[in-house]
């Protein structure tokens, strides 16, 4: 009994000495593609490549119209400017044909993820998470701190 | 018995009248990110974001060194130039910090996929598939025909 009790205590102490992760990285939620011609891009994925796609969804608060392309394990998000101050207009001005705009990775605790990335010198583009296109809190990380890639973290 | 036989026949005819697809689009295999600093980019995903990553793999035939970042449902492929004629050097010359380079989607029959995309006016960058980094046949589609995105199709 003493031996078993000692083992129990050791296990308890062992597990306590391992700090619990404050947040965990999850799966790739989507890849966003900005396009100057939403219907043509949607047709490429639906009619030529044979993927399932969603109906166009106007998101005035985000300045985009989106169509999701379902690839089974993840999604492409086709983005087209909506309104006069669309956040992707500048990107399309530089990339006339469109192009890969950002990737979105899920995290289970966005506040703790933000604290940790900031502590490691990765700039967040907003001080607080915003509510993203899926009605979940999101934050974008500065592309210059992420190998030139605009990375969105989304609370899963 | 007659009824069951009739149902069997109907099912047979029904399935025969549906033409079999000559190829099918599969899952997103990976997103490729070109980076001027492979160690720093790998550290971002491993040490700051906490993802599992592979060892660096030099691929002299492809002019790149790669590191794969496992995101559970798909992978990021970090690419760094190897040798003097690396196919990603031009991209890095234009994008000094690095950036999203291409996406790779699986297909179950690359020859039939190529025939169909060509018939729909999508240019392939090579006449025949090449053997890609995973030792499987791959072909790249012209970015100008794919909403500005370099799309790789890989035989699954």
TrEMBL record, chains A, B:
Q: What SUPFAM superfamilies does its record include?
A: Glyoxalase/Bleomycin resistance protein/Dihydroxybiphenyl dioxygenase (SSF54593)
What are the recorded GO MF terms, alphabetically? metal ion binding; methylmalonyl-CoA epimerase activity
Q: Which PROSITE patterns match?
A: VOC
Keyword Metal-binding among UniProt keywords: yes
What this protein catalyses is:
(R)-methylmalonyl-CoA = (S)-methylmalonyl-CoA
Instruction: Output a single Gene Ontology CC term carried by this record.
Output: mitochondrion
| One Pfam assignment | Glyoxalase_4
**Biological process per Gene Ontology, one example term:** L-methylmalonyl-CoA metabolic process
Role description: Methylmalonyl-CoA epimerase involved in propionyl-CoA metabolism.
- This enzyme's EC code(s): 5.1.99.1
| Keyword Disulfide bond (UniProt) | no
Please spell out the taxonomic lineage of the organism that makes this protein: Eukaryota, Metazoa, Ecdysozoa, Arthropoda, Crustacea
Q: Which domain of life is it from?
A: Eukaryota
Cross-referenced InterPro entries: Glyas_Bleomycin-R_OHBP_Dase, MeMalonyl-CoA_epimerase, MMCE/EMCE_epimerase, VOC_core
EC top class, as a word: isomerase
The protein, known as = Methylmalonyl-CoA epimerase, mitochondrial
Similarity comment: Belongs to the methylmalonyl-CoA epimerase family.
CDD domains given in the database record: MMCE
Keyword list (alphabetical) reads: Cobalt, Isomerase, Metal-binding
């Amino acid at each position: 009994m003493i031996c078993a009790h000692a083992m129990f205590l050791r296990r308890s102490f062992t597990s306590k000495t391992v700090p619990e992760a404050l947040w965990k990285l999850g799966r790739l939620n989507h890849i966003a593609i900005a396009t100057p011609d939403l219907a043509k891009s949607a047709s490429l994925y639906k009619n030529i490549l044979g993927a399932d796609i969603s109906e166009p969804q106007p998101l005035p608060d985000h300045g985009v119209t989106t169509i999701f392309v379902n690839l089974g394990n993840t999604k492409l998000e086709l983005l087209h400017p909506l309104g006069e101050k669309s956040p992707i207009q500048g990107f399309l001005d530089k990339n006339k044909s469109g192009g890969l705009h950002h990737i979105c990775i899920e995290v289970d605790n966005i506040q703790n993820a933000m604290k940790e990335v900031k502590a490691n010198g990765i700039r967040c583009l907003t001080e607080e998470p915003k509510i993203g296109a899926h009605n979940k809190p999101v934050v974008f990380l500065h592309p210059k701190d992420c190998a030139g890639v605009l990375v969105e973290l989304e609370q899963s």
